[in-house]
Design brief:
InterPro entries: Rab-GAP-TBC_dom (IPR000195), Rab-GAP_TBC_sf (IPR035969)
Keywords: GTPase activation
Strand content: 5-15%
Radius of gyration: 29 Å
Strand order of the largest sheet: 4-3-2-1-7-6-5-9-8
Protein name: Rab-GAP TBC domain-containing protein
Domain Rab-GAP TBC: 333-556
CATH architecture of the domain at 2-185: Roll
Shape: globular
CATH class of the domain at 2-185: Mainly Beta
GO molecular function, one term: GTPase activator activity
C-alpha cells in the first residue's frame, strides 16, 4: 500500500462521550488493487518505529502547503500491504462509500473537527488537535509570517482541516453543499445534507434496494464481478437499473465520475455486444440534433503554465500526480521547457516518482542498452556507412527520407550529396535519426513507411544529440500511443481511425456529414496524413504544432488525434458546406489549409468530446423509460461506448 497523505494529532470519537477518544493518524492510501481509501490508525497500537515513521510522514506532506518546503525523503510504500492494513488500521473505507464530510473550524470554545458520514448513514467524528500536530503548526507559522495582515479583520484562523481538505480534493472530487459552505458532498444520496440527519425518505428506491450498506458505486462493483454470464444477468432484474442509475451519481466535471462512467461503459459493452452499430448511430444523431443549434464560441486562450518550478521542485521531484500532469497537458498551454522535461515522464521513459539524479542514471543505462542494440543491428545489416550502396529496401527507404530532412532545420543541413542519386549522409544529426529509424523498424513486422521520419525528426529537434533518449521516446509513441498502427501494410490502423472519425462526424455534425456524402467525401482520405505523421506536414501560422502533440501525448483521450481532426472539421464546417462543391475542391482545400490557432482547435475538440459524452448520457437516461421486460440489447455496442475510454493512473 502507498501513503498519499498523513495527518497527526487526530482524535477519533467513536461515541458522544468526550472522554472516549482515540489518538491517531488520518491517512489517505492506495491499496494494492489501486483503489483509494481514507483510513484511521490508532497510535497506541503502533510500534515505536511506526510512530516515528508516521510522524515523519505528517511533516513530509507539508510540501503540499508550503511550496519552498524541502522534505526529508521518505518511502511512501509500506511493506506488508494487506497484513499491515489488517493489523493497524482502526477504520478504513473507500472514498466511494463516503456521502459527505463536514469540516468544522475551531473556535475559542472547541477544537476543529471533521464529521464523516457514509452512504449507509454511519458517522465518524475526528477532532484535530492542532497544538499536537507538527505539520499544522509549521503551516500556521508560515501563513502568519507570509499572509497575515494585522489591519484586516477578515483574517481566518488556519487549522488542520484545511490541508486535509486539499489532500482529499487531490484524489477525489468534492462538491460544496449549497446550504452549508463547510459541507462537501463526495457521493450523492437521494437527498442532500441537512441539519436533520435523521430525516430520511424511507420510501425511496435507494432505501428499498436490498438495503445495502455501501454506496451505489460499491454495489455496482459487486454486481459487475458477479455478472459472468447472460444467465446471471437475467436472474437479477435490478442490475440494468443500477448500472444506468450510475449516470446520476456525480457531476460531469468530476474525475471520479468520468472514471466510473468508463467502467460502466466497458462492462456494458463487453456483455452485450451488438452488430447493429448503425442503429446506435442513428439514435445518437437524433438525440444530438435536438441540441444542434448550440455553437462553440471561442473567447480566450486556455490557461498557460510556463514555469517549470510550478510543477517540479529543485531536486526534480514532481509536485503533481500523473493524472494532474495529463490534465495539465490536455487542457493548458505549456512552455517548451516543461514540454521537454515532461514528455519522457508522460510516456513512461522515466518513472513519475524519479528525481533529476535518478533520471541521469536512467539516461546512462539507456545509452548502454541503445549501443548494444545499434551494434547488433550493424552486425545483422553489415552496413554502417550511411550511403546508398548495398542497402536492403528498408534501409534504403529510410536513408532517402532522412536525406530529404536536411531542409527541415539548420542543424540538419547536409553538406554532401547535392544530387539525390548520391544519397549520402554527412550531418551527424541526420546520421543519428537514420540509426534511430533503423533500430525502430529493421527487425519489426511493420517496417519503415514514409512519414515515420517526420515524427522521429520532430522529437529529435526537441532532444538534439540525445540519440538513446529520442529512440526510447519514439518507441513509446510508436507502440504505446499506437502510431505504428497507422503505418501497417494492411491499413487496419488508419482505417479504424477514419471509421471512428466518420462515426463521430455523423453524430456530432450531421449537416457536415450530409454535405460530405453529397460530394463522395465521407471516406476522409484527405485528412489521413494528419493521423499518419501527427500533423507535422500541416501549415501553422505560429509554432503551434507541438500543442497538438501535447494533447496527444497527454494520453487523456482514447483517440486524441481523432478529436483534434474533428475540431478542425468543425472550425471549417461552414466553409465546407457553403463553398466546397466537389471532392477535388475539398482535397485542395485541406492541402492548402493553414491552421491559424491551435488553441481554438483544441478547445473545440474538448467541447465536442463533452457533447458526445452528454449525448451518450441522454441516450441512457431515455433508456431508463423503456419497459425492462421488452428491452432490446444495447444498440450502441462496444465501439460507440468505447470511444469514451480514458486512462486511469
Amino acid at each position: 500500500m502507498k501513503i498519499i497523505y498523513c495527518k497527526a494529532g487526530c482524535f477519533l470519537h467513536p461515541t458522544k462521550n468526550l472522554k472516549d477518544n482515540i489518538n491517531g493518524y488520518i491517512i489517505i492510501y492506495k491499496s494494492l488493487d489501486n483503489f483509494l481509501y481514507l483510513g484511521y490508525i490508532k497510535k497506541s497500537s503502533l510500534t515505536t518505529s511506526y510512530v516515528d515513521y508516521f510522524d515523519t510522514l505528517d511533516l513530509y506532506f507539508v510540501k503540499d502547503s508550503i511550496i519552498d518546503q524541502k522534505p526529508t525523503r521518505v518511502d511512501l510504500n509500506i511493506s506488508g500491504g494487506i497484513d499491515f492494513a489488517n493489523k493497524y488500521l482502526y477504520y478504513s473505507f473507500p472514498f466511494d462509500s463516503i456521502n459527505l464530510i463536514h469540516f468544522r473550524k475551531p473556535s475559542k470554545f472547541y477544537k476543529g473537527s471533521i464529521l464523516i458520514k457514509l452512504l449507509n448513514s454511519k458517522e465518524f467524528v475526528i477532532f484535530l488537535h492542532d497544538d499536537e500536530c507538527e505539520s499544522t503548526k509549521k503551516i500556521k507559522q508560515f501563513k502568519i509570517k507570509t499572509q497575515y495582515n494585522p489591519f484586516d479583520n477578515k483574517n481566518e484562523l488556519y487549522y488542520g482541516g484545511e490541508d486535509l481538505k486539499r489532500a482529499i480534493m487531490k484524489v477525489t472530487p468534492m462538491m460544496r453543499e449549497k446550504n452549508n459552505e463547510n459541507v462537501y458532498i463526495l457521493n450523492n444520496k437521494v437527498s442532500s445534507f441537512t441539519s436533520d440527519l435523521e430525516n430520511k425518505d424511507t420510501g425511496s428506491f435507494w432505501n428499498n434496494l436490498e438495503n445495502t450498506k455501501w454506496s451505489l458505486m460499491a454495489k455496482f462493483a459487486d454486481l459487475s464481478v458477479s455478472l459472468t454470464s447472460k444467465e446471471t444477468y437475467k436472474k437479477n432484474e435490478k442490475v440494468k437499473w443500477v448500472m444506468n442509475k450510475i449516470q446520476e451519481i456525480a457531476p460531469e466535471e468530476s474525475k471520479k465520475f468520468i472514471i466510473e462512467q468508463q467502467r460502466y461503459l466497458q462492462h456494458w459493452a463487453e456483455r452485450f455486444k451488438n452488430n447493429s452499430e448503425q442503429e446506435g448511430i442513428i439514435k445518437l444523431r437524433k438525440i444530438e440534433m435536438t441540441n444542434d443549434g448550440k455553437e462553440f464560441i471561442y473567447q480566450t486562450e486556455r490557461d498557460s503554465v510556463l514555469d517549470l518550478n510550478e510543477i517540479m521542485d529543485d531536486e526534480g521531484y514532481l509536485k503533481i500526480t500523473m493524472f494532474e500532469l495529463r490534465s495539465l497537458f490536455n487542457f493548458n498551454n505549456i512552455s517548451n521547457e516543461i514540454r521537454i522535461k515532461m514528455y519522457p515522464i508522460l510516456l513512461g521513459v522515466y518513472d513519475i516518482s524519479s528525481n533529476e539524479l535518478k533520471r541521469l542514471q536512467d539516461d546512462e543505462n539507456m545509452k548502454l542498452e541503445y549501443e548494444k542494440l545499434s551494434t547488433k543491428l550493424n552486425l545483422s545489416t553489415g552496413n554502417d556507412n550511411f550511403s546508398g550502396d548495398g542497402l536492403d529496401e528498408n534501409s534504403f527507404q529510410i536513408l532517402k527520407d532522412v536525406y530529404r530532412l536536411s531542409s527541415m532545420d539548420p542543424i540538419l543541413a547536409n553538406d554532401e550529396g547535392e544530387e539525390e542519386e548520391n544519397w549520402s549522409l554527412s550531418n551527424e544529426h541526420l546520421i543519428s535519426i537514420n540509426r534511430i529509424l533503423l533500430n525502430l523498424t529493421q527487425n519489426h513486422p511493420t517496417q519503415y513507411v514514409q512519414g515515420m521520419a517526420d515524427i522521429v525528426s520532430t522529437i529529435y529537434l526537441l532532444y538534439p544529440s540525445q540519440e538513446a533518449l529520442v529512440y526510447n521516446i519514439s518507441l513509446r509513441m510508436f507502440d504505446d500511443l499506437k502510431l505504428r498502427e497507422n503505418f501497417r501494410e494492411d491499413q487496419k490502423g488508419i482505417t479504424h481511425n477514419l471509421d471512428i472519425l466518420n462515426i463521430l462526424t455523423d453524430i456530432l455534425m450531421p449537416s457536415l456529414m450530409k454535405k460530405l456524402k453529397q460530394i463522395d467525401a465521407e471516406n476522409f482520405v484527405y485528412v489521413y496524413k494528419m493521423f499518419l505523421v501527427l500533423f507535422t506536414r500541416e501549415n501553422f501560422k505560429s509554432h503551434d504544432l507541438l500543442k497538438f502533440w501535447d494533447y496527444t501525448i497527454a494520453g487523456f483521450r482514447k483517440y486524441p488525434q481523432t478529436w483534434i481532426v474533428l475540431g478542425i472539421l468543425y472550425k471549417y464546417k461552414k466553409y465546407i458546406i457553403n463553398q466546397v462543391s466537389s471532392f477535388d475542391d475539398l482535397f485542395i482545400f485541406f492541402n492548402k489549409l493553414e491552421i491559424e490557432n491551435a488553441d481554438e482547435i483544441l478547445q473545440i475538440s474538448d467541447w465536442l468530446y463533452l457533447k458526445y459524452f452528454n449525448t451518450i448520457k441522454r441516450f441512457d437516461m431515455e433508456r431508463l423509460k423503456w419497459d425492462v421486460d421488452n428491452e432490446a440489447d444495447d444498440p450502441l455496442g462496444p465501439t460507440l461506448r468505447g470511444i469514451l475510454d480514458q486512462p486511469i493512473d
